[in-house]
Amino acid sequence: MPDLQPIQPGSEAPAPPPFRVDVQVHDLLVSPSSRPSAPRMPSPQPLALPEPVFPQRPELLNAEPEVPPRLPGESPYRRRWTPPLVYHAMRGWLFPYIKSRMLPGDFHPLIAYLFTEWKCNLDCHYCWAFDNRVKGMTEDAARRSIDWLHSTTCRVLALMGGEPLLRPKFVHKVVYYAAKKGFWVYLPTNARLLRQEVIDWIADAGVATVNFAVDAVDEKPGLPKALRPVTKYFNYLIKKQYSYGYTVFFNMNICRTNMEDIKQLTEIAHDNGIATDYHINESPMIEQPHFKHLDENSTYITREDWPKVDALLDWLMEKNESGYKMVNSVKRLSDMKDFMRGKVEPWNCRAGQNSLIIRVDGTLAPCFPMYSATYDWGTIANHKFEVKQLNEMKQSCQTHCFSTLNHNLGYCYDDARVIRWVLRQAARGFQGVTGSFD
Fold first, then answer.
1. What is the number of alpha carbons within 13 Å of residue 147 lying toward its C-beta?
2. Which residues pair with 275 in a beta bridge?
3. Tens-digit pLDDT profile for the chain (438 aa)?
4. DSSP string, 335-388
5. What spatial distance separates the first Cα and last Cα of the chain, rounded to whole Å?
6. What is the C-alpha to C-alpha distance for residues 200 and 413, in angstroms, rounded to an integer?
7. What angle, 0 to 180 degrees and rounded to 10, lies between the N-to-C axes of helices 330-340 and 404-412?
8. Dihedral sign, CA of 286, 164, 93, 327?
9. Do residues 5 and 301 make contact, with C-beta atoms less than 8 angstroms apart?
10. Cα–Cα distance list, 190 to 46, 152, 303, 368, 390 (Å)
11. Range of the domain at 302
12. Which helix (H) or strand (E) holds 404?
């Protein structure tokens, strides 16, 4: 099996392959004859999302947030989780998990990734997850997606892209409608469009967490997601979380050209009392014809970079064990070393059973890496996920995949772990714990 992290062109190693899964699985997933069709509207009149009421909480709009003081031995700010915020989190995650364990059948989604866009305003050279020729999701598709998901066990809705904030008013409507339906709403963004008024819109509408994607302190070639150009937005976002009750975390992709930046951003996150999430750079799992940076890509990790990446991961693991808030467990950070060398053990992927994605046209897929697959997994309110097909596919794709989102779901889909985690939270009065899920 070739190294999962492509070798730089110009070296003695061959150029990176256009996909990582086995050829047989790849051919099944991208067969043109199996491409699903967009769902038909059930009525001649498309549905619309309601206009958000803004501000719903005018007293928070211009009020100066009350930032809790730093306590000895803690990161700068300690959140104070009120009973309504604790209940909101439980309603999004814990209660649906319990239902999924009790109800018959195999399809009980806990989290859905709603791709409102497949366009992006930036061109990160490692990223294949956008195509600026594709139109964004309609209000009809968004509303019917949320209504359908509400009829299932799902109560966590993650907006995805591309860059969701290309249409901030549309995102405001989606967040408002989903939050009113009881969803715990997750918004990722590269923050270039996260203006102060946009922060106010989504916060007032009820967003639960903001995934602040950043790869460097200052822009680098091929890595435009930098903190310095959006420092003003970041500071406002951090401050207002104490008024509205949402959370923020840094989402970072480890590349060959930003390893010192990863350390700096980790410390910046810790100094601001927010969590971090790490990914390791990887080539596309299935072929992405629109991706133009597969060759001559300065961000890809090469064999010569492995010792430096190992040292960075060791540093991150030390920070995790010392109490830095991280989405990744220590074991998962350690596993990145094996993944970088082409070794991945099966990891209980639950995609297509407890998670799914909804593309901009309303068609479905089990997971993020399969966005460009043409296999027919159904459409809004008419899924065609079958455990037999998913399990057969995962025999191959699991050993090529390092999805943080789905791995965390699979890892947590264990009653004993969930019970231990709830007890740990209860022991601290549901005021959060340091480190990761372990």
1. 13
2. 249
3. 334 444 443 344 455 567 666 666 666 677 666 667 777 666 668 899 999 999 999 999 888 887 776 666 565 656 777 788 777 777 878 888 888 888 888 999 999 999 999 999 999 999 999 999 999 999 999 999 999 999 999 999 999 999 999 999 999 999 999 999 999 999 999 999 999 999 999 999 999 999 999 999 999 999 999 999 999 999 999 999 999 999 999 999 999 999 999 999 999 999 999 999 999 998 887 888 888 988 888 999 999 999 999 999 999 999 999 989 998 989 889 999 999 988 888 888 999 999 999 999 999 999 998 998 889 999 999 999 999 999 988 888 888 888 888 877 887 777 777 777 777 777 776 666 554 555
4. HHHHHHTT--------BTTTEEEE-TTSBEESSGGGTT-----EETTEE---HH
5. 31
6. 34
7. 130
8. positive
9. yes
10. 31, 30, 29, 18, 32
11. 23-34+55-427
12. helix 404-412
Number of domains in the chain: 1
- C-alpha span between 197 and 236 (Å, rounded): 10
- Measure the CA–CA gap between 170 and 44, rounded to whole angstroms: 22
3 state DSSP class of 184: strand
d(CA 377, CA 307): 41
The distance from CA 123 to its chain's CA centroid, rounded to whole angstroms, is: 18
* Residue 48 falls inside a structural domain: no
**Residue 52 near residue 170 (C-beta atoms within 8 A):** no
Q: Are 363 and 373 in contact (CB under 8 A)?
A: no
| DSSP codes, 115-137 | E--S--S---TT-----TTSPPP
SS3 160: strand
Tell me whether residue 141 is in a domain.
yes
Asked whether residue 422 is domain-assigned, the answer is yes
Contacts of 51 (CB under 8 A, 6+ apart): 173
Which tokens go with 249? Answer: 């975390």
Q: Which residue has the tokens 């090469």?
A: 302
Instruction: For residue 209, give the CATH number of its domain.
Output: 3.20.20.70
Give residue for tokens 């290309």: 166
Classify residue 95: in a domain, yes or no: yes
47, 144 in Cβ contact below 8 A? yes
Count how many Cα atoms sit within 13 Å of the Cα of residue 123 in the half-sphere of its side chain.
Answer: 10
